[in-house]
Design brief:
heterodimer, A: mainly alpha, 76% helix, B: alpha/beta, 6-stranded mixed β-sheet, 4-stranded antiparallel β-sheet, 38% helix
Chain lengths: 331, 243
């Protein structure tokens, strides 16, 4: 109990410290970097619902991200619909795409889902490039700045975005906590461990995986909309590329698949690494960050396959089960 | 006695291997049926076909008169088909109680109700003391119990135990046999797949023998174990020890 309250206290302190940062500094670069860590943390948690908890590797989350982003921007620029509503429409569109990918694929076992996510990602990227009148093609879409307005999610200062994204990360984390402790969360964990055994116990694995994908896509769509509002611009190269899909997956894999805190650690490492390589090597060596991602991924998969978060769990776990085992053995 | 499971002309092939050939057999309501045979005789495939883990190439499986041949494994579980696996397969990252809850959630509408049901099943199967242990860290005997408890939480009509005594020492096996008797006493029909003839003889009211995917013999345990075809195909000299 004490440990639990200790952890909670630490989390509250951490949130308070993060919330205090904009008061301490007005460095836009620093705020932007931390905000990107928040954003990718939420994206990583969303990816984890399907990639981690259901163990269905998605390499196409850029589909949901770009659908959320483009839908929101198109609704705002063409129909003057507030991004606050637009992001939910974007989430719904992303969920429809998830249904189209997931419904047939989850009937099969094997790499079909992963392959479909890659293929779907590529199809969407080409469509975004092709329908120039609607999507702006390779030039992308710009959100015109109409002055500070909370209704339009447009602010003069980065700090406002910072707090919104921090709030969204906390909301996604709490939602994740709710899901993992629920029936669906337990079913997902069972499916990840042993699909046949789960089915023999009445778990409708197809439906459960589909629900996980819908949740994942919906959150990713919302975060995609927020990404668009923060950056003020989207193009197929930034939000619709496989690089983006890999970056979302990487955040969760590096931090820890099937955990809620893992993607936050992963986002801090991956985003920090990207910013560091960009600062050190600049535009002259643009492939350096990807090379470092690859090296980092190999090191983590080989040394800590459960992700960096497992370093913390390593300290917490063994005591209780070990005691119980002694009891069993002595019966 | 009426048949709770009625299997008619069941076939299953894996590539060129005909694992189950035109199998016709019944499991009567309330009995403990022993399903025996040499390795590769099709016992586990039959269990997988009945539980829906595999789909049959042809033939029919009736559960209490209802055709379940084309019904999915989860729906069969809901209808009352429970099973354990040959190799123990607990959900490793979950606690013992959470493992049992997965089964209980099928009938219980809330997590609280499922937890209560799981606690009752843990008590029934002697797992209360280890209820909070992670199942990945359990010894073999406890894992076997957990497999059984998980399936029991489904409230099955038929429970198929696929070599649930494998890897147990004599005293653990004795405790296992007692647990199966206790489960049977609650009115659950049991299909007991086993190589340990001592356990088969002490538990089963009837035995079906499979060989190369086909039904070789069936009847009372002592009669079957004396059957020359069964002795030749499976038991060798061991059969007469129990006959």
């Amino acid at each position: 109990m004490l440990a639990r309250w200790g952890t909670r206290g630490l989390v509250v302190l951490l949130i308070a410290a993060l919330a205090a940062i904009p008061f301490v500094t007005d460095q836009q670069y620093l705020l932007n970097t931390i905000m990107m860590i928040f954003l990718f943390s939420a994206l990583g948690i969303a990816w984890n619902f399907i990639g981690g908890y259901a163990a269905q590797l998605s390499l196409g989350h850029a589909v949901f991200l770009s659908l959320g982003a483009y839908t929101t921007i198109i609704l705002y620029t063409r129909y003057h619909i507030s991004p606050i509503f637009g992001m939910f429409v974007g989430a719904a569109v992303a969920m429809v795409a998830a249904l189209i990918i997931g419904y047939p694929c989850f009937r099969l076992r094997g790499p079909y889902f992963t392959l479909s996510t890659i293929a779907f990602g590529e199809i969407l990227r080409i469509l975004l490039l092709h329908y120039v009148n609607f999507t702006g093609g390779a030039n992308g879409l710009l959100i015109p700045y109409k002055g500070q307005s909370a209704w339009n999610l447009q602010f003069d200062s980065k700090a406002a975005y910072y707090y919104i994204v921090l709030f969204m990360l906390i909301a996604v984390y709490m939602f994740g906590k709710l899901i993992t402790g629920s029936r669906i969360g337990m079913y997902l964990q069972a499916i990840r461990d042993d699909q046949d055994a789960a089915e023999s116990l009445g778990v409708k694995t197809h439906n459960v995986k589909l629900v996980a994908l819908l949740i994942s896509a919906g959150i990713t769509g919302i975060m995609g909309a927020m990404y668009a509002c923060v950056i003020g611009f989207v193009d197929p190269g930034s939000v619709g590329s496989i690089t983006m899909s890999i970056q979302i997956a990487l955040v969760a894999i590096v931090g820890g698949v099937g955990t809620l805190a893992g993607p936050i650690v992963g986002a801090a490492v991956v985003t920090g690494l990207t910013e560091a390589t960009n600062s050190f090597f600049g535009a002259a060596r643009t492939g350096t960050s990807m090379t470092l991602y690859g090296a980092l991924l190999m090191i983590i998969v080989l040394t800590r396959p459960a992700g960096l978060i497992s370093l913390v769990e390593l300290i917490k776990w063994p005591k209780k089960p070990a005691k119980a085992n002694v009891e069993v053995a002595s019966r | 006695m009426s048949a709770i499971l009625d299997i008619k002309g069941l076939n299953k092939s894996f590539g060129g291997i005909h694992a189950v050939k035109d199998l016709t057999m019944q499991v009567n309501e309330g009995e403990i049926l022993g399903l025996i045979g040499p390795n590769g005789s099709g016992k586990s495939t039959t269990v997988n076909l009945i539980s829906g883990t595999y789909s049959a190439d042809s033939g029919q499986i009736l559960l209490a008169g209802k055709d379940i041949t084309r019904i999915s494994a989860p729906d069969r579980a809901l209808m009352g088909v429970g099973r354990t696996f040959q190799a123990s397969r607990p959900f490793l990252d979950m606690s013992v109680l959470e493992n049992i809850m997965i089964g209980a959630l099928l009938h219980d509408s809330s997590m609280a109700k499922a937890r209560k049901s799981a606690e009752e099943v843990a008590e029934f199967t002697g797992l209360t003391r280890v209820r909070d242990s992670r199942s990945g860290s359990l010894p073999v005997e406890t894992r076997r119990r957990l497999d059984l408890a998980r399936a029991l939480a489904l409230k099955p009509k038929v429970l198929m135990l696929d070599e649930s005594m494998a890897g147990l020492n004599p005293s653990e096996m004795e405790a296992g046999v007692e647990l199966v008797k206790k489960i049977h006493a609650t009115g659950i029909t049991v299909v007991f797949i086993e190589h340990v003839m001592k356990a088969v003889v002490s538990l089963c009211t009837r035995v079906v023998v499979l060989n190369q995917g086909e039904l070789l013999a069936e009847g009372a345990p002592r009669d079957v174990l004396r059957n020359e075809k069964v002795v030749a195909a499976y038991l060798g000299g061991e059969g007469h020890k129990y006959a």
